[in-house]
Amino acid sequence: MGKMTPLKPVPSLIAIVITLLIWFVIPVPEGVTPNAWHLLALFVGTIAAIIGKALPIGAISIVAIALVALTQVTNPGKAGKALDDALSGFSNSLIWLIGISIMVSQSLNKTGLGARIGYYFISLFGKKTLGIAYALAIAETTLAPVTPSNTARGGGIIHPIMRSIADSYDSKPELGTAGKIGRYLALVNYNINPITSAMFITATAPNPLIVSLIMKGTDPSIELSWGMWAIAALAPAIVSLIVLPIVVYWLYPPEIKSTPNAPVFAKEKLKELGAITLPEKITLGVFGLLLVMWAGIPAFIFGASWTVNPTTAAFIGLGILLMTGVLSWDDMLKCKGAWDTVVWFSALVMMATFLGKLGLITWLSQTVGGAIAGLGMGWIGATILLLLVYVYSHYFFASTTAHITAMFAAFFAAGLALGAPPLLLGLLLGFGSSLMMSLTHYGTGTAPIIFGSGYATLGEWWKTGFILSVVNIIIWIVVGGVWWKVLGYW
User: Fold this and answer.
1) Where are the beta strands (DSSP E) in 329-476?
2) CB of 452 within 8 A of CB of 155?
3) What is the DSSP string of 376-415?
4) In 3D, which of 267, 241, 265 has the Cα closest to residue 435?
5) Contact between 353 and 360 (Cβ < 8 Å)
6) Is the Cβ–Cβ distance between 183 and 463 less than 8 Å?
7) Which of 116, 152, 242, 408 has a Cα-to-Cα distance from 206 of 20 to 30 A?
8) 395-434: per-residue pLDDT in tens?
9) How far apart (Å, rounded) are the C-alpha atoms in residues 194 and 190?
10) What Rg value do the Cα atoms of the chain yield, rounded?
11) What does each C-alpha distance from 400 to 135, 320, 324 come to in angstroms?
12) What is the sign, positive or negative, of the torsion defined by CA atoms of 421, 426, 429, 432?
């Protein structure tokens, strides 16, 4: 009985009260269907329970799935279809990319390749913790142009390296030593990802959708090329990447700040590891193969018919590791973080998806656009306010693609009606669509991978994300606005 973990009374009561208030007390707005409003009540209540830690996040998600199926909010009067809807998140390929990426990364620790990579990076940049942070930023920026999955890049490639570095300093959540260096590097690791995602059209999957929506929303249509996007992002992105590690350092300074002997120590450890082993070579080969497939190189060389879905690539990589014996099925069964992530992320993605399908997000974006227009402010103030509402509404989304699909076109149209220059407006909302990823631990596929490693608490994660969102928005409005004026974009 001492091991039982029942609901925590206070956070559970708060979540229930919030749900019931939205469901029964607050009137359903005109233009919103009752079932869409009721799903919003369940979604907000779920987020409140997660924030309050009423139960472990996976357990809360199981309750949320049960409630969506029981209340039939997605398909009134059709219990079977409502259950299918409640379970639909498990068919989302992004969720399995997350889970499989976590499983694949286990090979780094099991073979020792992760430690080898970690010691190598320390040998180059280990004199200062801040230097290691900038090394991670440089590595991710280098990969960003050719890695259209920000999840694969930040969670599947950079995060295992970051963990190896933290482990080499014996900074592990399970030992209560995350504060040594791991927490700082994990927060930097994640918050670099939204910036690099904003830098190139090919740095994250939704960016081409944004380009398409901008072209469709303007008359005559604006041709926003890969080069124009990259040049526009260059100046504000460089400033953000320089400032970010410093801001996180100020918020949560690592206990280990200066390690002048670390490079020598790392080289000694590399000698102790000896020659690279066969399992390490296989793991290295699999990661190279994944990088090639995630970067879309086969399609680039041989044509579109050779395109490999990022999740398919992850399954191929895991399959090779299992067939060669580098990983065993028991290793997969013991990978609790992967299975936990698949469960809770499936629930949140499912609820956010149906909020869009039921029309509530569209209603919200139209309402906000009309309200801003009614304030009678100039186009500059109205555009900034529109951007802020667009970015911070991401608290209600578990997918950037869903957010962009539901809101970008409506907000872009509202901004044009307010008199904003089309290209300036498109760039602000387009870059904001990546920068908003920093806000939560469920806002994009990379988040649950890094958050799930346990280096930062929920409060630390949300506090850092909010502060960096403010810093980034200021940088991209001020530095970006001046830079785009110089380029003649507005």
Assistant:
1) none
2) no
3) ---HHHHHHHHHHHHHHGGGG-S-HHHHHHHHHHHHHHHH
4) 241
5) no
6) no
7) 242
8) 888 778 777 877 787 788 888 877 889 899 999 999 999 9
9) 8
10) 23
11) 27, 30, 36
12) negative
Query: Helix, strand, coil: what percent of the chain each, to 5?
Result: 75, 0, 20
pTM: 0.71
Which has the closest alpha carbon to 56: 332, 394, 334, 336? 336
Across the chain, which distance is largest between two alpha carbons, in Å?
70
Q: Which two tokens stand for residue 291?
A: 């990088």
Query: 56-64: long-range contacts at Cβ-Cβ below 8 A with a sequence spacing of 24 or more?
Result: 56/5, 56/340, 57/340, 57/344, 58/340, 58/343, 58/344, 60/344, 61/343, 61/344, 61/346, 61/347, 61/348, 62/343, 62/347, 64/347, 64/351
Residues β-bridged to residue 258: 128
Q: How far is CA 456 from the centre of its chain?
A: 15
**DSSP character at residue 219:** S
Structural tokens at position 290: 């994944």
Domain boundaries, the chain: 1-91, 93-205+223-337
Distance CA 251, CA 125 (A): 22
pLDDT digits (tens, 9 = 90+) for 13-52: 999 999 999 999 999 998 899 999 999 999 889 888 887 8
| Residue 92 region by backbone torsions, left for phi larger than 0, else alpha for psi between -120 and 50, else beta | beta
What is the spatial distance between Cα 225 and Cα 228, in angstroms, rounded to a whole number? 5
Q: For the chain, what is the mean pLDDT?
A: 87
Report the C-alpha gap between 308 and 157 in whole angstroms: 17
**Burial letters for 103-129: b for 16+ Cβ neighbours within 10 Å, e otherwise?**
bbbbbbebbbbbbbbbbbbbbebbeeb
User: Is residue 132 within 8 Å of residue 121, measured between CB atoms?
Assistant: yes
Both structure tokens of 270: 């590399």
Residues forming a β-bridge with 128: 258
274 CB contacts (<8 Å, ≥6 apart)?
none
Q: Is 34 left (phi over 0), alpha (psi -120 to 50) or beta?
A: alpha
At 266, list the tokens.
Answer: 């790392």
CB distance 41 to 23 below 8 Å: yes
> How far lies 225's CA from each of 215, 423, 488, in Å?
11, 12, 15
What is the torsion angle, in degrees rounded to the nearest 10, for the CA atoms of residue 160, residue 164, residue 165 and residue 171?
110
Give the integer Cα–Cα distance in Å for 395 and 362: 16
- Nearest CA-CA partner of 133 in 202, 204, 195, 176: 195
